[in-house]
Design brief:
Elements lengths: L7 E7 L3 E8 L4 E8 L21 H16 L8 E5 L15 E2 L17 E5 L7 H11 L5 E6 L5 H4 L2 H7 L1 E8 L6 H12 L3 E5 L3 E2 L5 E3 L13 E5 L4 E4 L5 H10 L7 E3 L11 H7 L3 E4 L12 H9 L3 E4 H4 L7
Parallel strand pairs: 1-4, 4-5, 6-7, 7-8, 8-9, 13-14, 14-15, 15-16
Antiparallel strand pairs: 1-2, 2-3, 10-11, 11-12, 12-13
Helix pairs in contact: 2-4, 4-5
Length: 336
């Protein structure tokens, strides 16, 4: 149990088939959680029957009983909570008769108090490109729909439009603490506009000229080629609890060789294929070095470049890794 002088917060998510709850300390420590599958009611949302608040004869009564049981098992009651937040698709008009909450929020704005457990902060975004501004708006809406209004770091691997032309719109919609960019292409017009937009938005700008290791273990590798060389830029190695993810931007085969010759890369369970699966990236040498279990390919459907190349797919298959493509699967989410 937490020190009783410390405030406690309860977050509840009421879905049609799931019930989730968390108790957080004032310092953000998770004290208790629960995740349960529930049975949806036949008529959709079901209002109060007019009986007691804990009878369990309706969906909200069942929610109250489930919450009481969760709190009791954790050693608390509703009175111990400084604030309670409820969110989810099954909130009804009289939910407050059952759950004495302080805030009722939609899933779009659930990033407050206890609900923070369900929609955590985003530490980093790597690149933001595609259709100009539209890609940034898509990223912003994805984040805001999960209650995320701030990003610790936005890392741009290089200045090509398909990797960064959505950045300005993202900066307009979501706060970015720090922007990391390679010290390349100083005359690039899009780069200049992005730097100006970042400065206007109050983001710190860091030009990566040497390798960086950030406090959470994320590593940013500086470009190994010259500023005049195409298909070079930053690489990012993100360290997860159970696996690492390597993202190489548009790194060419030659640039991959230089990276391997100057760095002892650990095994990375997940690799984001270089240059959208182009034949000139994701070399056998890189695949042998990091031995990925899965390779993700970010690529548009029926693109005019023919990505991903058959040669690349063959190399990945030979390496024994599974392939996941955005042109076939859409948004790809990694869990675990």
């Amino acid at each position: 149990m937490a020190d009783q002088a410390e405030k406690l917060y309860l977050g509840i998510d009421i879905g049609s088939t799931t019930y989730k709850a968390v108790i957080l300390s004032q310092g953000g420590k998770v004290l208790a959680t629960t995740y349960q599958r529930t049975q949806p009611v036949d008529s959709g949302r079901l209002a109060c029957t007019g009986r007691c608040s804990g009878c369990g004869n309706c969906s909200m009564g069942a929610v109250r009983k489930t919450t009481d049981d969760f709190l009791k098992k954790a050693g608390f009651t509703f009175k111990d909570m400084a604030a309670t937040v409820v969110t989810g698709s099954q909130i009804v008009d009289d939910t407050n008769r059952f759950i004495p909450f302080d805030f009722q929020v939609s899933e779009v704005s659930a990033h407050v108090a206890g609900a923070k457990f369900f929609y955590p902060d985003v530490d980093a975004i790597i690149d933001c490109g595609g259709q100009e501004d539209a890609s940034g708006e898509t990223a912003a809406r994805y984040l805001l729909a999960r209650g995320v209004r701030q990003i610790d770091r936005l890392i741009l691997t290089h200045d090509d439009a398909d990797h960064c032309n959505g950045v300005r719109q993202l900066l307009r919609r979501v706060r970015v603490r720090t922007l990391y960019v390679p010290d390349l292409s100083p005359e690039n017009g899009l780069r200049t506009k992005i730097l100006f937009a970042a400065a206007q938005a109050g983001a710190e700008i860091r030009f990566v000229t040497n390798d960086l290791t950030l406090p959470d273990g994320m590593r940013i590798f500086a470009p190994t080629g010259s500023a005049e060389e195409s298909n070079t830029g930053l690489c990012v190695l993100a360290a997860g609890e159970k696996y690492d993810i390597l993202m190489t931007g548009d790194l060419s085969e030659q640039a991959e060789y230089r990276l391997l010759s100057t760095h002892a890369l650990p095994r990375a369970a997940v690799l984001v294929a270089g240059h959208h699966g182009a034949a000139s990236s994701t070399s056998e040498a890189l695949l042998r070095a990091i031995r990925p279990e899965a390779v993700l390919i970010s690529v548009g459907a029926d693109n005019r470049f023919g990505h991903p190349a058959d040669e690349t797919l063959c190399r990945i298959e030979k390496a024994g890794a599974a392939v996941y493509r955005t042109d076939l699967s859409g948004t790809i989410t990694i869990r675990g």
